């Protein structure tokens, strides 16, 4: 290969990387803009410039005026929860799709959401749980959401950690937990059923500053662990298991590790928010359509885009029928499905 050819390849690679970095920067700015707009919307009118100045002031001091209290204590926890939850769900979805080499594989299709729903239903309907007080629903949802993961990993150890085994085991778990939840709700009181169903739809109305550090630390730790495995996922996605083994990658061990981290991240989020759907499926696919399947860039891009997408959906949920606030899970399902279908129809080339 001559010097001119090397320079051409180098330029193409720099454009390839530059496009990805530009998209990541764009989504970061998009989150800041949407957050500012979202904080202005509500029964108490506040301008965008006031929102940003209040946020900067409250970072170093306590809110004093009514406007500052509304922005910092009421609106900011919900906005931050939307960003963190969206980033975590999208990250889990992207890595699960990659490690199982299946465009439909997400922590939700592996039974985690239905198991969390059963745990929450038991806490709401039967008032039974491992924890007591205000953490009974969160604790039940978190512990139950981990059950499908360990069942899938046990089956994978017996049958081998193949993508097919994990996906089919997850679907089986999803139907089992959904059936038990349906039976439980069928014999429950109407008010308890209503509360359980509202939780399972997914909502950010329970957001508070108290829960933000817990979810953020879970996201930060799990995201670092997932970024550590992006090279291995790239190899397994593009070359397959046999070539990956020749390059020093253990496919079974990597699948189990990524599955555990993704499941823990998803469980830590939905135990607080309920089962918010479509973010973990739609966000990674849209990012893959735009910047390709290199997980070194796809994972952070999916996380940022997932945060922006969930924040947008929550803003719509708060304002579309104001003063009535819809559960954000309804908006993600209503917008996510048609939007994703439109993108698939308009896409001119294969991206997976």
What's the helix and strand layout?
Elements: H1 3-40, H2 48-58, H3 66-100, H4 112-126, H5 136-159, H6 163-186, H7 190-201, H8 212-228, H9 230-246, H10 251-273, H11 279-291, H12 295-319, H13 328-346
Helix pairs in contact: 1-2, 1-3, 1-12, 2-3, 3-8, 3-9, 3-10, 3-11, 3-12, 4-5, 4-6, 4-7, 4-10, 5-6, 5-10, 8-10, 11-12, 11-13, 12-13
Written description of the protein model:
The protein has one domain (11-346): Orthogonal Bundle (ABC transporter involved in vitamin B12 uptake, BtuC), CATH 1.10.3470. The chain is built from 13 helices and no strands. The protein has helices spanning 3-40, 48-58, 66-100, 112-126, 136-159, 163-186, 190-201, 212-228, 230-246, 251-273, 279-291, 295-319, 328-346. The chain is globular, with a radius of gyration of 21 Å. The two termini are 30 Å apart.
What would CATH call the class? Mainly Alpha
* Strand percentage: under 5%
Structural domains: how many? 1
Nearest-angstrom radius of gyration?
Answer: 21 Å
- Assigned CATH superfamily: ABC transporter involved in vitamin B12 uptake, BtuC
> Could you report the average pLDDT, rounded to the nearest whole number?
87
Identify the overall geometry: globular
Unreliable segments (pLDDT under 50, ≥5 consecutive)? none
Taken in chain order, the helices and strands follow as HHHHHHHHHHHHH
Here the CATH topology equals ABC transporter involved in vitamin B12 uptake, BtuC
The number of helical segments is 13
Report the major sheet: none
Distance between the termini: 30 Å
Number of strands: 0
Proportion of residues in helical segments: over 70%
CATH architecture: Orthogonal Bundle
Briefly note the structural class of the backbone: mainly alpha
